[in-house]
């Protein structure tokens, strides 16, 4: 296993983008354990923080594939890694299908799910309820479906379903009705205040947090893509290869947990052995300089050699 260098001493250590601090970096390196010559697939390469640290260990960028659906992230990846790695600008469901068809296998696979810090920090992307911006929420800026279309065009039943399934929102019906009554809703702060109007009293988190999560998941088709692709990631692992998945909310983590449990069950044909009995979370040191890591959960597994 390559030595683990300390990447956690500042917000932007050598080789890291100042735009996004990779979460659980030391843990990812511990579980992927990159070795000289390993091939690497990063399904959500983002700003290349994990990728750059893993590639330091593999020393084989020509065997690496970095995937992201976001144009800005791909621009940053191209600037950082250039032609030394293969970069795929598409969602990981499409990229996974292509790589399976090509018959590829990888020693190390990472999926660091969800949004990047620039998604949340740039008001114009429309992900943050704390900043006024357009109702966008698309990770892939070329995609047609936006949050504005979901909020303004979907039926009451569709909104209730999204708020219930993707937000686990107890007031789904009341919020759906309030959204429909307030149409047209054009900005994040307008939506946040419509939802807040359905709540009385105090709550620790903003009352629109679950609504924003639900709409974001719907716009980006997040859970379906994980559900469809995760079994194929196991096919893409070489025998003895390692898979690490980081999720940021409970619906995602449940899907990951269930898929990994199914593939590693106590049977003669189990494909995986779990490396993490429980999800690994960030320690106080990491949380002190990267509060975004507080909801991160890492699960890892190794492909059983036949
Ligand atoms: C948490 S960030 C990853 C950060 C990265 N590990 C780093 O160190 O910079 C998640 C990234 O995954 C991308 N993403 C999310 N869902 C995706 C999907 N279904 N297909 C491709 N990329 C996706 C987002 O655009 C975002 O850049």
Describe the structure.
The chain has 2 domains: 25-118 and 222-303, Rossmann fold (3-Layer(aba) Sandwich); 123-220, Putative methyltransferase TM0872, insert domain (DNA polymerase, domain 1, Orthogonal Bundle). Helices cover 42% and strands 13% of the residues. Strand 2 (64-68), helix 3 (71-81) and strand 3 (86-89) form a beta-alpha-beta unit. It is globular, with a radius of gyration of 20 Å. The protein has a 7-stranded mixed sheet with strand order 3-2-1-4-5-7-6, with helices on both faces. The protein is α/β, with parallel strands linked by helices and 306 residues long. The structure holds S-adenosylmethionine. S-adenosylmethionine (SAM) is lined by residues 20, 22, 44-50, 67-70, 73, 91-92, 112, 114-116, 139, 225.
Topology:
Elements: H1 25-32, E1 40-42, H2 49-58, E2 64-68, H3 71-81, E3 86-89, H4 92-101, E4 106-112, H5 117-121, H6 147-153, H7 156-167, H8 172-182, H9 188-196, H10 209-220, H11 222-236, E5 237-247, H12 250-263, E6 272-274, H13 284-289, E7 297-303
The site of S-adenosylmethionine has 22 residues, from helix 2 and strand 2.
């Amino acid at each position: 296993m390559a030595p683990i260098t300390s990447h956690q001493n500042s917000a932007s250590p050598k080789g890291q983008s100042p735009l996004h601090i990779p979460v659980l970096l030391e843990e990812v390196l511990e579980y992927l354990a990159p070795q000289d010559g390993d091939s690497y697939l990063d399904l959500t390469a983002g700003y290349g923080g994990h990728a750059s640290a893993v590639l330091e260990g593999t020393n084989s960028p020509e065997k690496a594939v970095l995937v992201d659906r976001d144009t800005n992230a791909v621009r940053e990846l191209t600037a950082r890694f250039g032609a030394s790695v293969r970069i795929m600008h598409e969602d990981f469901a499409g990229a996974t299908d292509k790589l399976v068809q090509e018959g590829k296998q990888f020693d190390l696979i990472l999926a660091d799910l969800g949004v990047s810090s620039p998604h949340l920090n740039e008001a114009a992307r429309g992900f943050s309820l704390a900043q006024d911006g357009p109702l966008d929420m698309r990770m892939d800026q070329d995609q047609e479906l936006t949050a504005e279309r979901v909020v303004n065009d979907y039926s009451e039943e569709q909104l209730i379903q999204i708020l219930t399934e993707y937000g686990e929102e107890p007031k789904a019906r009341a919020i759906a009705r309030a959204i429909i009554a307030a149409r047209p809703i054009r900005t994040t702060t307008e939506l946040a205040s419509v939802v807040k109007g359905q709540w009385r009293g105090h709550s620790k988190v903003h009352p629109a947090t679950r609504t924003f999560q639900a709409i974001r998941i719907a716009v980006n088709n997040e859970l379906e893509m994980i559900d469809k692709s995760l079994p194929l990631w196991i096919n893409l692992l070489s025998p003895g290869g390692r898979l690490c998945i980081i999720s940021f909310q409970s619906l995602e983590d449940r899907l990951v947990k269930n898929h990994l449990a199914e593939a590693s069950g106590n049977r003669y044909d189990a494909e995986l052995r779990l490396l993490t009995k429980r999800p690994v979370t960030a320690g106080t040191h990491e949380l002190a300089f990267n509060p975004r890591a507080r909801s991160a959960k890492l699960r890892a597994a190794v492909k059983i050699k036949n």
